[in-house]
Amino acid sequence: MIQRRSVLVAGAALTGSLGGAGLLLRAGSSPARAADLPASGIAQFTQPMPVPQVLKPTFTSGAAAYYEMTMKEADAEILPGRTTRVRTFNGAFPGPVIKAVSGQRVVVRQTNRLDVPTSVHLHGAHVPSSSDGSPMDLIAPGGGTKTYTYPNSQPHANLWFHDHAHHMESETVYRGLAASYLLTDHVEQSLDLPSGAYDVPIALRDARFDDDGQLVYVMGDYAGRTVLMANGKAWPYFTVAARKYRFRLFNTANLRFFTLQLADGSAFQQIGSDGGLLEKPLEVTSVALSPGERADIVVDFSRYPAGTTLVLANTAPQLPGDPADQVGQVLQFRVTGPAADTSRVPATLRHLPALPPATVHRSFVLAMDETGLTGEAFINGRTYDMDRIDTEIEYGATEIWTVTNGNLFTPHNFHLHLVQFRVLERDGKPVTSGPESGLKDTVPLMPGETVKLQATFTGYEGTYVYHCHMFDHADMGMMANFRVSRTRRARRHRPVR
Ligand code: C2O
Ligand code: CU
Ligand code: CU
Q1: How far is the CA of 64 from the centre of ligand 2 (A)?
Q2: What is the DSSP code string of 275-340?
């Protein structure tokens, strides 16, 4: 597969070059210090993986559900028997789940009791820019509030919300400020996919700890973050019945790419991606997720005898010296006895609308200073300036964006706010099937790779961002503003290169 090949190429680049390693990590990455907690000493598969609580609305009318959330510090047991200070929504790590229905508005009043400003972004959502959680639209620390309105005028999708305060989101998300938001609709509900206790969101990420069990944040510290977590626990286990489960996977890590595979190499089904279900289920043996991406999978455990344990492995290419026993495994499934199962995965999951013709073409190159000396990162040669509009878009326009990773060693990815897009091509090859054929809002870009995307900018006027979703890179400047407006401006025809 195209994606697999490019991952391997990137892996070769990473493992073949020290410069490349320095790159991905950038300045600041430092070898384990004496004060670090050795990840090798953390007991694996001893804690159960929790399923995040579903948040209850404070009030519901027919047209809207109202929620209250408080961002505050809390203590979490990430490592067995130890306590870690984290930044949370409502004290939960990861945050509570909001369940929403297409066509019913969700209104969330956020109160910031942290000691840093925040901006809450609902990733993947089609929302007015006033509720998008833009990098400059901050909620003051120490009790500031903001009310976000999510119209949910889009089909079902696995969304997630996280901090987006410029120059701070990288650390604040790392310290825990992320949660999932599951939007459903009648298309998804008409299917008999595994549901209830058999439908489980799993937020994946990594981290590094000091010997007090506290999170260590160093910008660009890919190599230091070797503790993998699922739903806020380091290397947990999850008990499953011998039947089908639906897992909604979220990569909430700042930098880490995951390639998830059952340790026995056996097949499962991928049924969805960022923007909801695929048209048809795919039979796969792995799913790849760059930071910010989601995958929806169905695993049938009925083939395993009771008592089986099975690791969910991470086979993404690693840096030389990366400890495989740490970054190579995510969690352990423990299969108990059989259970009734009336769920099924149909041959057709949904129909996606035909692509309208595009009228505007643009190109974007993502690159960072690979020497690691300046710590700067760019889109089309410029670092982020919150006061500069980089791309003017006519309301309603359908555009094709060619996005290239201009670096030699460093992977990036590309995330666009406001819209779900379609991937037309990857490295010149048409994408007509496979995991990228559904609706997407984030796509990986291995060094030198190019993707061609198509999006229609409709629904809202206003200013939004696009950026690399490796948060540390966005923080270094790999982010830009686009503005959707009905005013036809001459400069629209001279897009920034
Ligand atoms: Cu999940 Cu602008 O990001
Ligand atoms: Cu987003
Ligand atoms: Cu990047």
Answers
A1: 22
A2: TEEEEEEEEES-EEE-TT-EEEEEEEGGGSPTT-EEEEEE-S---TT--HHHHTEEEEEEEEEE--
